[in-house]
């Protein structure tokens, strides 16, 4: 695996709706760098950036499903290395195998 | 994990499956193996390019997108867009943009980009039928529907401006006829006529992942900054799909590389070719960002550094190095060119805007200052003197237009205006094929031509077609009539129909308001 110092990035539409999401990302990623462009907030972090449903819901005051992230995102740099009910993780490097596979008896195909 | 998900779905029916299992059930499990034909007969197009796929099930879709979630969110995106469009139309939004000439950027967009969305819709529908694996077929299906949505929402959004401004009224036919629009058209036609895997690397990876940010992101930010809320909204609406397309492109390249080592050199050549092909198309975006926006927001150079050099060369390519993939060939020319690209392209368009569906004008003082700031190494030294000369001519009543037709590159079809990084005086490259002479704009296009000369010799080059008598007649008025241009579509912005209307409409507002609403009056 490569060293995780490359910047990952996600650009989000700067709207009232997305404020809680942006706040949650800021809270969960200590090294986050924010840059405001007209209509967009660019969020950058070294190596890895995560979005947690619980943090978003706490700030939003309602239930939020990770699929809703699709309404907010403008673009990203990095791999989506995890996307499930609770988390979205964007990182460089080879994605880690999904831990869900462990208790998964389904056929992949 | 499973039970937690179940309790978190609010009033909706309880979900028993995790996102991953739902995805698997609703995409992969709906697949079947053919019994009365062979797999080869059912999917006849996936072997001739030399790409080897051993296990289609290894295709991963990180979005875990299922049909129900897809339509639910897409419908929501459209609702948001259409409420903005309604508000804009009702609120006379066309008067609140920064200035009428801002719309030149939108004319280029509607003519050059929207038809590509439609072409992408068609080809992803083909891929949704022709890939052997259900994962990539479903991803291609979603993208196909996305691209149709993009084409429709862009046309719908910009139709609001067509009611008041020139240059929008014949975008679809312009795409087939107007000379500069052959740049994006030939690019996409090149991809459509490639095999299904090459297309995926061409459009899915090289365009969507490597370059699309340069097209959409600063552009939509610019729309926001120039008061064009509808464009900003459709842009972000489309771009939210784009992040999914980017992910598809990235998964595609990794999937091909992981399937068989023999795929690596094939994919590398496609990355080399399609980076350069796509990059040349973005030349049109470069000039929009730097010259067409009355309120510029980010220079081409800065956008290129941020979205391409930093994110792609710095972020992505070290990942791809693991598979043996190197940064694209000729990338050093693109990096060097960032200081020159927008200037030479806008100068070319300035000279030929008598034959385009938009207007051009010399940058004003403030704009010169901004450009000099953004391009400290090149602007004042090389490009400002040229604008000063054009301005002088304009003031003397001799507005400069190039009195002839430009030499186009056989591959990218852009007029041959690009200086080379190792010799700024060199803008011409040549190749011979079966006794014929071909002109090329760069080492990159020359390399592409020489890889497949039999393909590119067939290019429909607008200038050659005009000279061959296929474009309405031998004179400029004949050709413009064939383009179906109307008064105000083309030429100089200052004094144009749009400019006059802009002043008139704002004078009316001023009369009504009884105060100076001077914004945008000065050229």
From TrEMBL, chain A:
It comes from Propioniferax innocua. GO terms for molecular function: monooxygenase activity. InterPro entries: MOase_MmoB_DmpM (IPR003454), mOase_MmoB_DmpM_sf (IPR036889). SUPFAM superfamilies: Monooxygenase (hydroxylase) regulatory protein (SSF56029). This is Phenol 2-monooxygenase P2 subunit. Pfam families: MmoB_DmpM. Belongs to the TmoD/XamoD family. The lineage of its organism: Bacteria, Bacillati, Actinomycetota, Actinomycetes, Propionibacteriales. The keyword Oxidoreductase applies. Keywords: Monooxygenase, Oxidoreductase.
TrEMBL record, chain B:
The keyword Oxidoreductase applies. GO terms for molecular function: monooxygenase activity. It is an enzyme of class 1 (oxidoreductase). Transmembrane segments: none annotated. InterPro entries: Ferritin-like_SF (IPR009078), Phenol_Hydrox (IPR003430), RNR-like (IPR012348), YHS_dom (IPR007029). Its EC number is 1.14.13.227. Keywords: Monooxygenase, Oxidoreductase. The keyword Glycoprotein does not apply. Residues 426-460 form the YHS domain. Gene3D superfamilies: Ribonucleotide Reductase, subunit A. It catalyses: propane + NADH + O2 + H(+) = propan-2-ol + NAD(+) + H2O. This is propane 2-monooxygenase.
């Amino acid at each position: 695996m490569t060293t995780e110092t490359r910047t990952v990035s996600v650009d989000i539409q700067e709207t009232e709706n997305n404020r809680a999401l942006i706040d949650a990302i800021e809270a969960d990623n200590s090294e986050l760098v924010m840059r405001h462009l007209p209509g967009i907030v660019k969020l950058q972090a070294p190596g890895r950036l995560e979005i947690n449903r619980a943090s978003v819901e706490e700030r939003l005051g309602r239930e939020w499903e990770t699929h809703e992230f699709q309404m907010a995102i403008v673009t990203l740099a990095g791999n989506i290395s995890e996307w499930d009910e609770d988390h979205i993780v964007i990182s460089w490097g080879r994605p880690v195998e999904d831990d869900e596979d462990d208790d998964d008896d389904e056929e992949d195909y | 994990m499973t039970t937690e998900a179940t309790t978190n779905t609010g009033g909706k029916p309880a979900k028993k499956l995790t996102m991953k299992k739902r995805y698997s059930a609703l995409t992969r499990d709906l697949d079947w193996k053919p019994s009365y034909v062979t797999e080869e007969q059912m999917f006849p197009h996936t072997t001739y390019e030399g790409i080897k796929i051993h296990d289609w099930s290894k295709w991963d879709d990180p979005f875990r997108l299922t049909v129900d979630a897809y339509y639910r969110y897409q419908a929501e995106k459209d609702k948001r867009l259409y409420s903005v469009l309604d508000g804009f139309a009702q609120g006379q939004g066309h008067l609140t943009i920064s200035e009428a000439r801002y719309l030149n950027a939108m004319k280029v967009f509607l003519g050059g980009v929207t038809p590509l969305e439609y072409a992408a819709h068609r080809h992803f529908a083909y891929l949704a039928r022709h890939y052997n694996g259900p994962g990539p077929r479903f991803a291609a299906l979603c993208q196909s529907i996305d691209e149709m949505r993009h084409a429709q929402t862009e046309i719908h959004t910009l139709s609001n401006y067509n009611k008041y401004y020139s240059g929008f009224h014949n975008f679809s036919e312009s795409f087939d006829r107007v000379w500069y629009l052959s740049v994006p058209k030939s690019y996409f036609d090149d991809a459509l006529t490639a095999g299904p895997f090459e297309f995926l690397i061409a459009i899915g990876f090289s365009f969507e992942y490597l370059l699309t940010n340069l097209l959409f992101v600063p552009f939509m930010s610019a729309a926001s900054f120039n008061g064009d809320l509808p464009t900003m909204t459709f842009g972000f609406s489309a771009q939210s799909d784009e992040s999914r397309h980017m992910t598809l492109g990235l998964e595609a390249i990794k999937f091909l590389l992981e399937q068989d080592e023999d795929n690596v050199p094939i994919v590398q050549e496609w990355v080399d070719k399609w980076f350069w092909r796509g990059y040349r198309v973005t030349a049109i975006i470069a000039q929009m960002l730097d010259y067409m926006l009355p309120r510029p927001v980010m220079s081409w150079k800065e956008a290129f550094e941020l979205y391409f050099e930093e994110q792609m060369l710095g972020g992505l390519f070290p990942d791809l190095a693991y598979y043996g993939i190197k940064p694209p060939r000729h990338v050093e020319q693109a990096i060097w060119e960032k200081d020159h690209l927008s200037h030479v392209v806008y100068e070319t368009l300035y000279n030929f805007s008598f034959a385009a569906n938009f207007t051009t004008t010399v940058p004003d003082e403030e704009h010169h200052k901004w450009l000099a700031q953004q391009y400290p190494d090149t602007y004042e030294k090389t490009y400002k003197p040229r604008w000063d000369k054009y301005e002088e001519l304009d003031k003397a009543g001799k507005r400069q237009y190039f009195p002839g037709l430009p030499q186009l590159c056989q591959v990218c079809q852009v007029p041959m205006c690009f200086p080379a990084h190792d010799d700024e005086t060199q803008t011409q490259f040549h190749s011979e094929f079966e006794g014929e002479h071909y002109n090329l704009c760069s080492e990159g296009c020359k390399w592409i031509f020489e890889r497949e000369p039999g393909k590119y010799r067939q290019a429909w080059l607008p200038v050659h077609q005009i000279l061959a008598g296929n474009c309405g007649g031998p004179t400029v008025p004949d050709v413009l009539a064939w383009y179906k241009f109307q008064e105000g579509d083309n030429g100089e912005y200052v004094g144009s129909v749009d400019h006059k209307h802009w002043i008139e409409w704002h004078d009316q507002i001023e009369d009504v308001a009884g105060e100076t609403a001077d914004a945008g009056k000065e050229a």
